[in-house]
């Protein structure tokens, strides 16, 4: 850092550095990262995705078959040529690119602003104090990330790993197996049986047979422990009669099944996000048989996890239906909040869900508003940059004219090249300014209308 000019140095006293995960990579991270390191929740970043460095490599991948045969010098020169061509195309297309981005941002800003107004309108009447409290919390977190994150659920999420049930301790009939351990082990054995597939070779058939034998031994051991807690099981195995199970054991199973269903749904959601991201990346960036084959192999692995999560959830759901009288729970839908009674709102974390949804709606509205302002500033800087480039080329032409050049043809060539570059920059400036004028005027009128609407809301 000390080697850079003073104007380019990041001094900790005057700069604050924030770290984020690029948007394409974020779904593969844990929930903690998705709420703490998301571009969507940071003020001032607009609709930045953080994936810009990856786009250049995606375009350069097709030349890998050529550069891998080159020496270091030729490889570097070739890559420089390709990157230079890509940069030049990006520069001359800035007018079209920035115009489309601004048009999209204006529409998105308007849509999300209206959606946020509709959401807040349903809350202002009966829950205006709660809405003000949420606003204070999210603004405090934006100023100081060390404070509680309003985008994160504050209640403990139900999982099988965290659901340590102690209610069955008094029922323990074996020193190494409490009722909760018995039932959780049964759930694990049930899940392992779903993983048994068909064999395609003698070697796979042998491994499958060995796995079946090991699993059967575990099931036999578990069945013996099960008979300690369910004495009527031996009678049921030799007859078609049914006998009720101990209510306390059913309660434990319901809680574990409920946690198992939550685990399966989270796995299903995560893998669906991963599948969508892989498909989008494959369609946009991958070319060639080898790259597409690897992508399909990855998708097959994700699909296998989706099928496993779906099967686990279906089994858990069927068990919960049977055990429903012991754990009936009515979930309130998040949008049915208007006119709800205060005690009803407290059930099933309805306030928690609505707070997160309102925070996200507010964040989307702010990010698109920031995106519009950032695009307008970037457009102004692009025009200033081209004007500066034209001035630099004019000055370089004058400098070459003042220098003593022996060859008149060389002198004329240098001057003509400088004039040509200056003219090119000026024409790009005028072309961009002309194409952007109407849209920028529309953006300014939108800003004025939004300010007027906000003033009316305050009044």
Which key terms come to mind for this protein?
single chain; 13 helices; 459 residues; mainly alpha
Question: Would you give an account of this structure?
Answer:
It is extended, with a radius of gyration of 32 Å. It is 70% helix and 0% strand. It starts with 30 loop residues before the first helix and ends with a helix. The relative contact order is 0.10. It contains 13 helices and no strands. With 459 residues, the protein is mainly α. The protein has helices at 31-36, 52-60, 64-67, 72-92, 94-143, 179-194, 202-229, 233-237, 247-285, 289-322, 342-345, 350-402, 408-458.
Q: What structural category characterises the helix and strand content?
A: mainly alpha
Strand content: under 5%
Query: Can you give the helix content as a percent range?
Result: 55-70%
Oligomer: single chain
Counted beta strands: 0
Largest sheet: none
Compute the CA-based radius of gyration. 32 Å
Alpha plus pi helix count: 13
Task: Describe what is shown at a glance.
The protein is 70% helix and 0% strand. It has 459 residues and is mostly helical.
Helix and strand layout, with pairings?
Elements: H1 31-36, H2 52-60, H3 64-67, H4 72-92, H5 94-143, H6 179-194, H7 202-229, H8 233-237, H9 247-285, H10 289-322, H11 342-345, H12 350-402, H13 408-458
Helix pairs in contact: 5-12, 5-13, 6-7, 6-9, 9-10, 12-13
